[in-house]
Amino acid sequence: MKAECEECLAIFDVSDDAIVGEVVTCPECGSDLEVVELGGELVKTRKVQLSGEDWGE
Question: Which of 18, 27, 46, 53 is most buried, by the most CB atoms less than 10 A from its CB?
Fold first, then answer.
């Protein structure tokens, strides 16, 4: 399967056993993308939103 990076628009391979909710990394720019829908020519993804952890600071 293939996915398109929202950040750099690169097309890259995604594992055939990928599942919705899985996080994949763009090999071109390193962006983390969450799989939101399977099927069709491209796997639909969205950029992972990191929550503002304060790590106890």
Answer: 18
